[in-house]
Structure formats: C-alpha cells, structure tokens
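User: My advisor asked me to double-check a structure prediction for Haloacid dehalogenase before group meeting. I don't want to rely on an old file, so could you generate it fresh from this sequence?
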Amino acid sequence: MHKTKELVSINNIKMAVFDLDGTLLNSKGDLSEENIQTLIKAKHKGLKIVIASGRIYPMLQSYIKRIGVVDYVISANGASIDKIDEHMRIHEIYIDQSEAEKVVDFCKLNDIECLILKREVSYYPDRSERLEKFLNYNNISQALGYEAMELAHYNEKFDEYHHIEKLLINEKNDVNMQKLMQFIESNTILKYTKSGKLLLDISSQGVSKEEALKKVCEFCDISLDEVIAFGDYDNDIGMMEAAGFSVAPKNASDKALEAADYITMSNDDDGIAYVLNKLIEMGKI
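Assistant: Sure, here is a fresh prediction for Haloacid dehalogenase from the sequence you gave:
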C-alpha cells in the first residue's frame, strides 16, 4: 500500500518514533498483542523505541509498561521528554503563566471547554465532556498497578498557572474554535495544533514533536535520516517530515496521509506491525 516510496528505499533504521492515538493504538484505544510483540522483536534487533504523544506523561504510563521496551517518551506534543530506563525527565517547556491565564479567561467568557494539564495534576472546568475519558485513563492505569492521575475541578478563583505543559480545548462548535484560534494568534505568544477533530492543543512556542525528536536524536547520537516516524494526525506532520522516512495508517487525516512517505493498513489492522516486520525481514532494522 505504498504512496510515494517503497519500503525497500529506506536506509537502515536505528530509531522508530510512534504516535499513540490513531496510530499505535487501535480505534478502541488499546494496544494489540501483534503490535506489542513486533515492538519487542524490533527492540531485540537494536531499534530505539520512542513514543511521541499529545497526552501528558501520566496518561502514557500504562502503555509504556505494557510495551516494556520503550526508550524515550515525548509527551504533551514535545513539552516534556523522559528517559524511561532512568525514570528521569530530561527536557521540559512550560507555558508562561500570564499567557495561560489569558487563554483560560477567554474560554471561561466564551463557554469553551479548556483543560489545564500539568504532570502532577490536571484541572477540568464545569460540565467537562472530556472528564470521562480522563477517568477511563485512570481506570486503565490503576488496573496495571499505576497510581491514578490526579484530577481537580477549577473555578473562577483558580490561580495555579505554574508548570502547565499544555492547555487542551475540547469544543464541538466550530465558530467558537475559530474565535479561540484567532484570539491566540492576536493576543498571545502561544501556539496551537489540532490533535483531533474536536481537540486543540495549546503550548509554548518551540514545543513540537519534531523539536523533541531532534533532542532525543542528539541524546542518542542518531541522525534524523536513521529515524522512521509513524503518525496519523496534523500534530504528527512535523515529526514525520523531520524523520528520514514516515508512515501513516490509512485511517490518518488527509494532511498526515499527504505528508507520509508510505501508507500502511489501518490502526485496527496492525499496520504498524506490518511495516516493522517487513523492515526486519529486509534487514533494515
């Protein structure tokens, strides 16, 4: 199912970086056994395994544990990088407190759902439609022996604007979403990226999956040309373009499909495992 390049054209690969939702995870938000076993096989061949997600780190721990061979985790779209074997955060960029407050105040005034995400606690507003998904993340983590992510409600008196990794907007009304994007562009020094049909991630300038990937490559002394990137949505495109070779599952957004060097089977058909197994067979890993 190639698009513009054949897998045979890939140089030898030393690192693979994977988006989670819509890419490595199936449409139920789960890891297939085929994907897990293929990642383990690739790791045993010497491949560095990197997860790059828009989620904050506490939402990723259960997947890291299940995979068992992850080397680095890029979380919050690049705001944070963790080295897994040393249980150490090696990079972080927080949103400026006054800039975060501007966005939160705008969302309050316009009845837009804005979640405030930190590593230690995530805050949700009144009538949050996203809260149920966060509670599901906690259920999965607790079932695998991890502590639940701390969740807290915020109101008009909220003033905990330090150490924010990202602001997450969950908004069905496209007019409201457009108003917010225009406000960010005109009144803040922040950046935003679409991470889902109804989702907008707001971060500091300089935060992106591709910039974080470059840092991980520096830590590992690996060239970007020796990296293969897998992604399915608009917030993955920079990372896909930075890597030597990029793959999107066929369920990806139009922009991600256009950016990919190769289109594989969907996330429900273990498209990622298919590509890795082919590369192993060809001796590229």
